[in-house]
Design goal:
By secondary structure, the chain is an alpha+beta fold. Helix content is about 20%, strand content about 20%. It is elongated.
């Protein structure tokens, strides 16, 4: 039940309402409508805000105090002229204004499971691909607000973040104009459903950024590898597809490796079968699409885990202690048992890593630094990562 009021706005002498768009006026607490160039406003006030059952899921959804129905499971059902918000996995949220549809509205959000099939040119995804559907073909009567989380660590200073939607007729990704950035979220108003994702666009060319370098098994020449202590290992890793270089022709061997990057390198070595586990980390939305499959496979195999707070921290630099534990688990070696190691900085090695650190040293996979120090909290570099993973492969193949 609603109460309806009609409000007539009369312009001052000498003024007109020409140019005033439809749905321009708002009344607090009411759903309002007006036609273009008109000052006649219809305001509908709800009598109550009862619990509403989402017919798509059977869940009871309670309207919030500002009369907006919310749902966090990716599905929502809204009566006519009812505002709502639906989110999915903390990665995407749609804000639907009252009057967005002239009939009951059912909206669903799902993650596309194999997004790489939609990107033959290997564009770099900053977020998963989400498919938004509703229960009728017409566009929304009013724009809805789409908010998607993305990974800012994948964006360089010469790039910008853009939301794209997939044109099913042209089979092409089209920029959704008018977006704005808020922290690690991008927001845009749209009036259509379909597939949406976030891409990084080159500021000069205006084109989406693609995955760097080649996957060719032949020798790859990168200008900062020659003369490096790990040059042979880097070349071997490049040739076998374990790791790639960058578009500027560098490898950056002394740069730190993130947890997500190391997971991808490791899975490129082990090449497991299957899609992997369903990722339920509190920060899953921040895991780049390029790393999701590898992390899911590593989690499924019990090789990599998250932190006590429920997060995975994909963009955190992996420490040498963490790397030692992952290497031990990959070879099926117990990470418990040893309470000391032979390194001079044994007191700095976390208890949960001591057994693994001792194993990788005895197995010849990883060694110390300087005067017999392991440096457990130091970040692992790209050169160190490919070197230990090649040694892991040799052990794993025997």
């Amino acid at each position: 039940m609603v109460y309806t009021a009609t409000i007539t706005i009369t312009p001052k002498p000498g003024y007109t309402l020409t140019g005033v768009p439809a749905y321009f006026f708002t009344v607090p607490g009411a759903s309002t409508t007006n036609t273009a160039n008109s000052g006649v406003v219809t305001a509908e006030f709800p009598a109550t805000a009862p619990d509403i059952t989402d017919t798509g899921t059977g869940n009871t959804v309670t309207p919030s105090t500002n009369n907006i129905i919310t749902s966090t499971n990716g599905k929502i059902t809204l009566p006519v002229n009812q505002a709502g918000e639906v989110s999915f996995e903390d990665g995407v949220k749609i804000s639907i204004p009252a009057g967005a549809a002239a009939k009951e509205l059912i909206v669903s959000i799902e993650k596309v499971l194999e997004p790489q099939k939609l990107f033959p040119n290997k564009e770099i995804l900053l977020s998963p691909v989400y498919e938004i559907t509703k229960n009728f073909a017409e566009d929304f009567s009013k724009p809805v607000t789409l908010k998607i989380a993305f990974d800012p660590a994948l964006v360089t200073s010469n790039q910008q973040v853009v939301i794209f939607y997939y044109d099913e007729v042209k089979k092409a990704w089209i920029e959704a104009a008018g977006s704005k950035i808020e922290g690690n979220h991008i927001i845009v108003e749209v009036n259509r459903v379909g597939k949406y994702t976030v891409l990084s666009v080159d500021k000069v060319t205006g084109l989406p950024v693609r995955t760097p370098v080649t996957e060719s098994p032949t020798e790859i020449t990168l200008r900062d590898v020659a003369g490096h202590w790990a040059a042979a290992s880097i070349q071997q890793a490049l040739s076998m597809g374990m790791v790639k270089g960058y578009l500027d022709g560098t490898f950056r061997p002394n740069h730190s490796v993130t947890r997500a990057e190391f997971a991808v390198m490791l899975m490129n070595v082990l090449k497991p079968q299957g899609a992997g586990a369903n990722l339920t980390f509190t920060d899953t939305a921040t895991i780049g699409a390029w790393a999701q499959s590898a992390i899911a496979q590593a989690v499924q195999a019990g090789i990599i885990t998250g932190y006590e707070d429920g997060g995975f921290r994909p963009n955190a630099e992996i420490t040498r202690a963490e790397m030692a534990v992952i290497l031990a688990k990959a070879l099926g070696v117990s990470t418990e048992g040893k309470t000391t190691s032979s390194f001079s900085d044994d007191k700095d090695i976390p208890a949960w890593a001591k057994s693994s650190v001792d194993f990788v040293k005895q197995a010849g996979i990883a060694q110390g630094k300087g005067e017999n120090a392991f440096a457990p909290q130091d970040s692992a570099t790209r050169a160190e990562a490919v070197t230990v993973l090649l040694k892991l492969l040799a052990q794993w193949s025997n």
